[in-house]
């Protein structure tokens, strides 16, 4: 699966996702931060699921109708938990993400908001 990691996600998560077979771009490798709107736009243009810690992307998608190819928000996870958690969400919910779902993951639960058509 194609993934764009937001710069707020621990950079080491990239290697975990790559080792699991995903095509990963980490925005922390970019020269500058273009802002949330542009990051979501790049993810959409490239057909990538966005993985982030930032709730603003969900607001852009839900409230403002910004197009996307799925968003995974990791909440209150230690840096070293972020990669494995993202791998597991992509494995279990990749089909939902591919249709534009928003998945929120924290220590105790997982919530999925299906894409509204």
Could you give a short description of this structure?
By secondary structure, the protein is an alpha/beta fold. It is 38% helix and 21% strand. The mean pLDDT is 93.
Structure description:
The protein has 117 residues and is of the alpha/beta class. It is globular and about 30 Å long. Helix 1 (12-19) packs across helix 4 (79-98). It has helices spanning 12-19, 36-45, 56-62, 79-98; strands at 2-5, 23-26, 49-52, 71-74, 102-105, 110-113. The relative contact order is 0.20. It has a six-stranded mixed beta sheet with strand order 2-1-3-4-5-6, sandwiched between helices. The two termini are 23 Å apart. The longest helix has 20 residues, at 79-98.
- Separation, N- and C-terminal Cα atoms: 23 Å
Q: Report the portion of residues in β strands.
A: 15-25%
Helix content: 25-40%
Rg value: 13 Å
Q: SS-based structural class? A: alpha/beta
Q: List how many beta strands DSSP finds.
A: 6
* Low-confidence residue ranges: none
Instruction: Determine the number of helices (DSSP H or I, runs of at least 4 residues).
Output: 4
Instruction: Describe the strand arrangement of the main beta sheet, using strand numbers.
Output: 2-1-3-4-5-6
Task: Based on Cα principal axes, name the global outline.
Answer: globular
State the order of secondary-structure elements, H for helix, E for strand. Answer: EHEHEHEHEE
Key words describing this protein structure:
six-stranded mixed β-sheet, alpha/beta, 117 residues, single chain, 38% helix
Helix and strand layout, with pairings?
Elements: E1 2-5, H1 12-19, E2 23-26, H2 36-45, E3 49-52, H3 56-62, E4 71-74, H4 79-98, E5 102-105, E6 110-113
Parallel strand pairs: 1-2, 1-3, 3-4, 4-5
Antiparallel strand pairs: 5-6
